[in-house]
Amino acid sequence: MKLTRIFTAGIFAAALLVARAADTPKVGDKAPAFEAKDQDGKTVKLSDFAGKQVVLLYFYPKDQTPGCTKEACGFRDAIASYKKLSVPVFGVSPDPIEDVKDFAEKFKLNFPLLADADHAVCEKYGVWQEKSMYGKKYFGAARTTFIISADGKIEHVFERVKPDGHDREVLEYLQSSPG
């Protein structure tokens, strides 16, 4: 009986993973609506940008880790170039708002970081995924960046992002993009 329960739970977990992967928005899909608090407690809604401008939404696994710090500082250092293109940058982390605030302050980040402690935004974008480190399996945010067009559709997706130089990779895409 116990083996049957474990087997059933395993099948359910696998089905849930497949369902999540199927929900990952693709280029041309309507971007999932979201609302989240930034490091200052201000509510950010995707709908506030609808019909107005392109949005850069990047997901990162954990505040104050080496890769996430490198990625965030890259966007920080390039923010003037993004502003010149009128593209707001938003980082999304599954960390609580206190951790996001500490991270933003410590590294003088000059763009909003959104706290997604319940990983609702991560799930909507299909980036809340099973991971493995040292043989231990766990769930976390996959490092992924979405470019959302002014009409609210997914314009481009950067998956399996390498933190070093990602800000330049995205900027080059935006500068060469017709939209």
Protein model, in words:
It is a single chain. By secondary structure, the chain is of the alpha+beta class. It has a single domain, classed as Glutaredoxin, CATH 3.40.30.10. Helix content is 36%, strand content 23%. The protein contains six helices and nine strands. It has helices spanning 2-22, 66-77, 79-84, 97-106, 120-124, 166-176; strands at residues 35-38, 43-45, 55-59, 89-93, 113-115, 128-133, 136-141, 144-148, 154-158. The chain has a seven-stranded mixed β-sheet with strand order 2-1-5-4-3-8-9, with helices on one face. The radius of gyration is 17 Å and the shape is globular.
Short précis:
The protein contains six helices and nine strands, in the order αβββααβαβαββββα.
Beta-strand level of the residues, as a percent range?
Answer: 15-25%
Annotated CATH topology: Glutaredoxin
Annotated CATH homologous superfamily: Glutaredoxin
Radius of gyration over C-alpha positions, nearest whole angstrom:
17 Å
Features:
globular, 179 residues, alpha+beta, Glutaredoxin, two-stranded antiparallel ribbon, single chain, 23% strand, seven-stranded mixed sheet
Question: How would the blueprint of this fold be written?
Answer:
Layout: H1 2-22, E1 35-38, E2 43-45, E3 55-59, H2 66-77, H3 79-84, E4 89-93, H4 97-106, E5 113-115, H5 120-124, E6 128-133, E7 136-141, E8 144-148, E9 154-158, H6 166-176
Parallel strand pairs: 3-4, 4-5
Antiparallel strand pairs: 1-2, 1-5, 3-8, 6-7, 8-9
